[in-house]
Amino acid sequence: MLLYIDPGTGSMLFTILLGVLSAGVYFIRGLVLKIKYSIGSGKRTKDDDENIPEFVIFSDHKRYWNIFEPICREMEKRGKEIVYLTASSDDPALKCDLKNVKARFLGEGNKTYAALNFLKAKIVLSTTPSLDVFQWKRSRDVRYYVHIPHSAGNLSLYRMYGLDYYDAVLTNGAYQEEQVRGLEKARRMPAKELVRIGVPYLDEMLKRLEASSEREVKGTTDRSTTMATEGATGTGKKYTILLAPSWGKSGMLSRFGSDILKALKDTGYHIIVRPHPQSFTAEKKMLDDLMAELPDSEDFEWNRDNDNFEVLKKSDLMISDFSGVIFDFALVFGKPVMCTKTDFDLNPYDASWLDEEPWTFGAFPKLGHILTEEGIPDIKHLINESIESDAYKKSREEVRDAMWQHRGRGAADVADYLINKSAELDRGDVTDTVDSSDAATAS
């Protein structure tokens, strides 16, 4: 009779085995170095310090290349080499044109973390949370781990202990810093270095938008205002509405199912449904059923493009729940978002340790109407009002100012920080905790 081990137990056993293996390897390595040191009359060999990368980036999915590409390009301009480690065999980084970016695929599944746990590097930069919590362990041969968020949203909405074991976190606003400090206090953790930077991927998205032939962005010019005027003057503007839900039981499609899709289809507007990529794995049956019930048609489409830029650009309003793409749409494109009111279960997330609700939940009503289940039958009216409202336009600008500081400087901020931190580590300086400083003055 075969012994069955469930996936959770299997992962735990793998982690224990890996820990034992790591300890053994480090013991043997230390013993070898001691023997070398003794034979060499107390002198370190060149091999002890050579071939250790100064800067390593780890990406757990190819979709985060948009986060790292502008940083890699900035470091390339400064003549700095980046070792780019990815868990995706088709990551664009593997074919990028940057001569100083040495990209390598680590392998699938546990092979990725086995490689990371024995990594040698001075500084590792990553968007991946839960360092030293599950399979990904801090390597004894990495001097400094730095986290950069993959979106402009809440840092408290990572799964439990998401950032606890990083040395530094790059933030883009006071609200993120308050969340990290609140978690440190609640869990009595040492204070991490917090450095406020811009948002590199939003800077690049804005450059791309400005270069497009669709429209010209000038200061606080809001394309939705133009669209609303056309609609109000009776030209019969047919809005394009993007439904961009997150995944999980608190997500919009899990809660509202086909009801919201049917209501949107009945508006007569062009509807684009773009589920979160994880939904196609974790919620495959639900999506298969919805796509069978409401298949693609002339004014209703399901979107799975890897690059979301074009679908964001052509949409006049987004409907979402708590997905990070909300702020890409509102901050870069200056367009309204209708967020759904959900009974969000905070228990699995770091936010459950804090007394205050996640900051962005309070920002949602400033972006457009909040959509409740009772409001679904009136969704067309709510859409029109969200697009046409000058008050929403003004409050969106306030949210943008709070969330996206140092506009246009994101990649330069990160490069400044990494280079300065490397020099600081070489000097052996003690780093003071940074609560809300500019990257240029952080070190």
Give a short overview.
This protein has helices spanning 7-39, 65-77, 110-116, 174-187, 200-211, 223-232, 252-256, 258-265, 279-282, 284-293, 309-314, 325-332, 359-363, 379-388, 390-403, 410-427, and strands spanning 55-59, 82-86, 101-105, 121-126, 142-147, 168-171, 193-196, 240-243, 270-273, 300-302, 317-320, 337-340, 370-371, 437-438. It is α/β, with parallel strands linked by helices and 443 residues long.
Features:
single chain; 443 residues; alpha/beta; Rossmann fold; 2 domains
For the record, the CATH architecture of the largest domain stands as: 3-Layer(aba) Sandwich
How far apart, in Å, are the first and last alpha carbons?
A: 61 Å
| SS strand fraction | 5-15%
Count of runs of 4 or more consecutive helical residues: 16
- Please provide the ordered H/E string of secondary-structure elements: HEHEEHEEEHEHHEHHEHHEHEHEHEHHHE
Supply the helix-strand structural class.
alpha/beta
Name of the CATH class of the largest domain = Alpha Beta
Helix content: 25-40%
Across the major sheet, the strand order is 3-2-1-4-5-6-7-14
Shape: globular
Q: Which value, in Å, is the CA radius of gyration? A: 24 Å
Please summarize the sheet with the most strands.
8 strands, parallel
* Overall pLDDT: 84
